[in-house]
Amino acid sequence: MIRLATPYWLALAGLTVVFVTVWLVRRRLQRFPMASVHRHQGRWISLQVTTVAGILAAMAFLPLAVASARPQEVLARVLEHTEGVDMVVALDVSGSMAALDFEPSDRLGVAKEVISSFVESRPDDRFGVVVFAGAAVTLCPVTLDHGVVTHLVREIELRALPDGTAVGLGLGTAVNRLRKSQTESKVIVLVTDGASNAGELDPMTAAELAAQQGITVHTVLVGSEGPVPVPVPQRDPRTGRETVTIQRVEVETNPELLAEIARATGGMSFRARDSEALVSVFAEIDAMERTEFESTQLVHHREKFENWALAAFLLLTCAVVLESGFGRSPW
């Protein structure tokens, strides 16, 4: 990038035209006051040399004006410091997450896609994933490798854990993942569709542990109200073959508990009754938990007027040599 330190010197280029025009007219009148001199070949050549010398002198003022304006190359160095958010998503994978009230997939399928998009949209944050049902496991520790995170999230399947909804164990495992984090912002997003009905750890005890560690917990209750269609696997006791039937099931929920968990940790509690609402919930969480950026810009300049000044000097030298050697008239 090039800038001009003293750009007002460019006005010299405009004045050059006026000065050189006056100079040429004056020189012509001084040398050839009578029209008959044009018939003499030697003096005619002298006139042409004077004209060329004047043009060269005029051209010399253009690079001189640029050189006087001091063009400079800007050498900038930007130092950036990013303070990201360490975030763990605790995802319910109990059997009720197979409910077909979300489009175009079941609850778990839509949640996996929304979470994957959420992770990909925050490249400067570290993510971890915990899955829970009747038990809880860490699917992915906190990492900046978002490719690994999204791959593991998309590979989540139902019935990988004992059935049930151990909200306390899921939250406690997520807290443990962030316990050694040194970042200022630590967040857990707890996604579930049911009431806590399993696990040895009480959900509010896990919330208190999160608050002690400075961890914010946002809770998301997914699913519509009332009976919902759920694929229920059944095994024939005689043949051992497994079939799946769709049954309408009333899923027990406890939104008050989720709201209390969020309130105890300074977080927010959300309800997503369909896929569009779930997308909006994560967009709101994304807006609340912003990554902090600090940048410092160091700017240096390199002078670039030398070539312009040299061009002006050469043009003026050529004009002087032509006029002195062939113009046959003193300067």
Any chance you could write out the topology, listing elements then pairs?
Blueprint: E1 2-4, H1 11-31, H2 41-68, E2 71-83, E3 86-92, H3 107-120, E4 126-132, E5 136-143, H4 146-154, H5 167-178, E6 186-192, H6 203-212, E7 215-222, E8 227-235, E9 242-250, H7 255-264, E10 269-272, H8 275-288, E11 292-303, H9 306-326
Parallel strand pairs: 3-4, 3-6, 6-7, 7-10
Antiparallel strand pairs: 1-2, 2-11, 4-5, 8-9
Your description of this structure?
The protein has 331 residues and is α/β, with parallel strands linked by helices. It folds into 2 domains: 2-75 and 302-326, no CATH class; 85-290, Rossmann fold, CATH 3.40.50. Helix content is 42%, strand content 26%. The protein is built from 9 helices and 11 strands. It has helices spanning 11-31, 41-68, 107-120, 146-154, 167-178, 203-212, 255-264, 275-288, 306-326, and strands at residues 2-4, 71-83, 86-92, 126-132, 136-143, 186-192, 215-222, 227-235, 242-250, 269-272, 292-303. Strands 5-4-3-6-7-10 form a 6-stranded mixed β-sheet, with helices on both faces. The longest helix has 28 residues, at 41-68. The radius of gyration is 40 Å and the shape is rod-shaped. Residues 32-39 have low confidence and may be disordered.
Quickly describe the structure.
The chain has 331 residues and is α/β, with parallel strands linked by helices. It contains nine helices and eleven strands.
What is the CATH superfamily label of the largest domain? Answer: von Willebrand factor, type A domain
| Amount of helix | 40-55%
Which series of helices and strands comes N to C?
Answer: EHHEEHEEHHEHEEEHEHEH
Strand content: 25-35%
And the CATH topology of the largest domain?
A: Rossmann fold
Mean pLDDT across all residues, rounded?
82
Annotation field: number of helices: 9
